[in-house]
What does this fold into?
Amino acid sequence: MIYHHIALNVPLSDGILTYAHDTALAEGVRVVVPFRGKPQTGIVWATGVTPDIDTAKIRKIQTAFTAEPPLPEAWRKLMAFAARYYHYPLGQAVAAALPQGLKDAKPVVLPEPPLFYGLSETGRMQTPPPARFHKKSALWQALADTDGLPLPALKQINSQAGKLLEEWAQQGWITAQSAAKPLLRPSAYCLNEAQQNASAEIQTAFGRFQPFLLYGVTGSGKTEVYFDVMAKVLAAGRQVLFLLPEINLTPQLLKRVEARFADVPTAVLHSQTAAGRRTQDYLRAMLGQAKLIIGTRLSVFAPLPDVGLVVVDEEHDSSFKQDNELRYHARDLAVWRAKQAACPIVLGSATPSLESWHKAQNGAYRLLELPQRAHTAAKLPQVDILNVGRLQLDNGFSPQALSLIQENYRNGGMTLVYLNRRGFSPALFCGDCGYTFGCPNCSAKMVLHRRVRQLRCHHCDHREPVPYKCPDCGNQDLTAVGQGTQRVEEMLRNLLPQAAVVRVDRDSTAHKDDWAELYRRIREGGVDILVGTQMIAKGHDFARLNLVVVLNADGSLYSSDFRAPERLFAELMQVSGRAGRADKAGRVLIQTQLPEHPVFSAVKMQDYRLFADRELAERKLFDMPPFGFQTAIRADAPNVAQAMDFLNGIKALVEPLLPEGVTQFGAAPMLMVRLAERERAQIFLESSSRKNLHYALDLWLQVLKQDSDRHIRWSVDVDPQEM
Ligand code: ADP
Ligand code: ZN
It folds into this structure.
């Protein structure tokens, strides 16, 4: 008997269990084994191991899919790293990274390699079809000009390509081979100087690991830079991994890719593609058949035998972080993969994450800039900050906002009314001097709990009574933020009964088809006023949109989440970038009670650097990321006291064993304490040393894994993105 370690999706010994087989199986082979009376699919993780349990107890592997290619070593190393870094059981991490078809206990159907067609020797000696049959002639010409083109590309030239190929093949005029160098179409544009420089710099790093931060305002032509570099890598026959936020992976983007890379075998990995299709695309990537792999965060786990370039668009986007099970950050793993594969990686954004910006500042990443919009005519928007502190608002609208919206409607423009929902927590501030209430113990802002008349810190659980005056200026009229914006749509419908008002949020665009439909309506000019939250801010280019009204930006500024201002800034920049993209400058009106806040001046000047430098200075002061590192340990229970007690009990156990420079904050109730009939609390471990932080987390996990209180569920989140 040969003993094997098998990675399984089971909650036992990190999902690595020992099974026996008559012969040695290759590592990475899929197998089916019995587990608690049921067949379970797993991956061979190690062969020829010495069992550490009684061999009589070791069960046999039932089936080994040896006809399938094993999951490659580089992929297994990636999974091992992800499991270790995110402190997640390896077997379960593997399950989170595989498509359904590879988790089923049956063999997969391997995808056929794509065929590339061209003219054979005899074909080349034939007289081409006469030019007056111009479609037929064009197809012939394409076949004559190429080393090999796949059917989809030929169908673009002549929709009858399938039938004609068959006819010509019968004459012996056609060759079909399973590998070819794609014939790439040049860009429709001539890249401008900044684009050319960026592309050239990236190309100097081919064949070695080098991260680039491509910083360029919305519309500056980042995508054309990615395409230019991608074309070079694809022309060399190597693979490219292109990651995008879910919301940017639109049919429009795919069309743009297809227009440029029609003859490149492409795999699209998206959480919404059907399981069967996703499995096939995963396999095509793994077998090297697909050369261009486009996808959302989950595609960072696609096995890629020959990757020569990784691109992460909108690298600051929070959708790259998975917020359940294996809580990975796809951007960070993408950098790891580029290093593993010794290839360049391009992180692109108009508002880079402060983590990436910091790395570009200290030289770990190379900064590339596109300072101007690509259409020379496109102008930056005019941004006005309106102090609404002393104004009477009508359902959240100032009189100025209402008249701008009316006027824009009369002039045939399209308006976006933008609501900020995320990172929102009720807070107290001074309407006179703008003072906000920070926690005396840590860097978080305190949250207003009206019923108990307290300010509470959700980071360290400090509590104090609501003050009756401003500690800075003595003003006794302290204001609470959080006016409702629920009635915005009604308000607008009453104001302009003739206008087409459409709301966009998670509910109204639950399906990708909903979004595609809405997008079509907007493009066709069927929408006058769009009411939306974060979703609408990203990546969409609406020619008629020329006015953006931001109703309630302030919530983020008092948020207990230290990243809230960063997100607000990115969203305001994006939302204002939406306005006036074509030829006329757009207008942006931001309502706020804190007009002096640096976020707003930076948005007004459209100046990311100004914001980033100031925000980083503040982070540094408090040792917050990217200067220090964090891990959250969360627990939920029927009531929050149980969750807090559970965490505090372990905190006390671990405290004397903590390595130097690691601090524990909390336990504190989570901001949204109740979720699905459970109540949640969390503790933060913080340190400027990742190593010490991971050591402390291991201490926690030793206790957590032994603790068998059935009422409590717990999880850990390394580098949490949401507080
Ligand atoms: P980003 O990805 O930075 O938002 P895009 O690459 O989408 O920018 O480019 C914005 C717009 O400018 C697109 O409509 C694109 O087709 C156009 N564009 C990009 N590069 C050029 C160029 N060199 N010359 C003219 N137009 C360009
Ligand atoms: Zn605190």
In short: The radius of gyration is 28 Å. Residues 43 and 525 are 52 Å apart (CA to CA). The chain has a mean pLDDT of 88. The longest strand covers residues 662-675.
